[in-house]
Structure formats: structure tokens, C-alpha cells
Amino acid sequence: MGDDGDIAVRCEGLTKRFGPGTGVFGLDLSIRRGEVYGLLGPNGAGKSTALRMLVGLIRPASGTATVLGHPAGTRSSLRGVGALIEAPALYPHLCGRDNLRVLAGYASVPAARVDRVLEAVGMTAKAHVAFRAYSLGMKQRLAVAAALLKDPALLILDEPTNGLDPEGVVGMRDLIAGLRRDNRTVLLSSHLLSEVEHACDRVGVIRRGRLIAEGTVAELRGGVDGGGLSVTVDSPERAAGLVRQLSAVRSVSVVGGELRVAVDPHEAAAVNRLLVMNGLAVSGLRRRVPSLEDVFFDLVEDHRATGPESVEVVNR
Ligand SMILES: Nc1ncnc2c1ncn2[C@@H]1O[C@H](COP(=O)(O)OP(=O)(O)OP(=O)(O)O)[C@@H](O)[C@H]1O
User: Fold this and answer.
1) What ipTM did this prediction achieve?
2) Residues 6+ away with beta carbon under 8 Å from 15
């Protein structure tokens, strides 16, 4: 099979069924070269299963997947792919650099590449430290370095921030931003909305093995019912009762002491006037842009309402 032009990954009807509603069903994806694409979904949505099919760890029951212009899982497709899907086998007693040297030897990669990838993941200063002494974030960075050894055109990262502390998450985010600048194609999975929101050019939302939405973060946001207003006011509960009476208001909630009003933002003056006239001090009023989290839960809720079975959404 030849080159697939600008497309790094193409899946058509990719299916692997483990049980009713469990697995991946009819997944259609097109990931362009040079983009960072996030597969977002709750636990058990089928993200890992999809990624495993792309690297040949699982054979699809039906459908096709093409990776870098070759059938997924074949030697020719894997030549250009670096993957972090299972924790790589790294020796605890060896330092980071020696671990990578061993892997470079297995993969017939020139040893000079080791220092390049250590630098790419920001681990040069810790390269001499034994792997067992690394923090989880450092171990994860070294695993990404291992995936980069072959200088892959496509990097597949399954939940790269899973289990990391906030510092590790920021480090991984910076690392992914660096990969994007390198013009590499990155396909990552995450259940962390904020991660995908910041790291990815496009996002596919997957639930119960099916792609339920796809687009840029801005496009996905556009599909949600407005954002409305955030109001900082004393006595937010009383304020909520008052604002609810306005006919233009669709819903009101109090989140973290702040009033969230689902209303056309042009109604800001009317909301402000009503509160002030009732003796409440409004210290802040701003337009609220829906976060990807709003989009995600909106979508999942929507599908929960219309889908054949219920789903538990768990945020790890
Ligand atoms: N080999 C298998 N045999 C049976 N069921 C499986 C197998 N692999 C995965 N599953 C099930 O398929 C569903 C999807 O799993 P998958 O690991 O792809 O989800 P995920 O979206 O990556 O979620 P998580 O973040 O929890 O890993 C889950 O219900 C899982 O238990």
C-alpha cells in the first residue's frame, strides 16, 4: 500500500467487540500528519482498545486501519510509529541513559540518538540517575524518550498523564507541545478534559466504543448550549432565586460560590440591574465560555439520555 497523502491514521468501521457495548464499534477516524489528536473518553470507553488495534496488539474483528499509508500493525507501518501503550520494560538499576542505550541497541538505532531524545523530553540532567529513583513523571518522560528513539513520524501515547502529580502533568504537557513544534503527528488518549483541551488540535470524544463527537476544541464548544454568565455576588443562593425569575434565563446554578447563569450574554445588564435593585452587591460579571468539560458532560449526558443503557462517568 502506498502513501496516504496528508493522512497519518485512517480508520474505517474499526470494530472489536468484547461484550455488549464493550469494545470499539465502527470507529471512523482521520488524523492528519502534523496534528496532535486527542481521543477523549471516560474509563472503559475503548480508547486503549482503539490504540492497540492501530499498533497491531489487537486484531480488529472488522473494519480497516491504515497507519502512515500501510495496514495497521504491519512491519512497514510500525517502522514510523513510536508508542507508549504499555509501560516499557526498563531496568530499575540502570540509569536513564543506559536504559535508552539498551533499547537503542535492540532497535538498531544509532547511540547518538539517545542524547537527542533525552534532551527532547527534558531529562538530560537526570540521565545518570538510576531509573528506580525517578519520580513517576520522570519515568513517564523516559518512556516517551524510548518511544522517540526511532524518530517516529507518529507517536501514540495512551493516557500519558495518568497517575502524574500536577508538576508531572505540566511537564508532560510541555513535552507534547514540543513534539507538536517538531511537526510530529501525535495521537494521545486521555480521560482528562483539561489535558486534551490544552494539548490537542482536534479531539474525538469516544463513549462505549463509539465516536460521539469530533472537532477542534472551539468547534466542540460551539456545539454546546452557550456558556452564559458568571456572576460574583453576595448571597449567591438568594441571587439565584431572583435571576431564575427572568424569562430569558434557561437555568441557574451556584458553583464554588459563583452564580452560573445560562442566558444570552446580552442579558448581562438586565441580570445586573435585577440583583442591584434587590440590594445585592455584584462584584463581578463576565461572559462564561464553555469548557471542554461542559462539552464532554453535555455529550455524555445527551447520550446517556438517549442511549440504550446507562453509563457511569468517572473522572479519575
Ligand atoms: N482483552 C479484553 N477482554 C475483555 N474485555 C476487554 C479486553 N480489553 C478491554 N476490555 C474491555 O473493553 C472496554 C474498553 O476498554 P479500554 O481499555 O479500551 O478502555 P479505555 O477507554 O482505554 O479506558 P481506561 O481508561 O479505563 O483504560 C472495557 O470495558 C474493558 O474492560
Assistant:
1) 0.95
2) 23, 24, 25, 26, 27, 60, 61, 62, 63
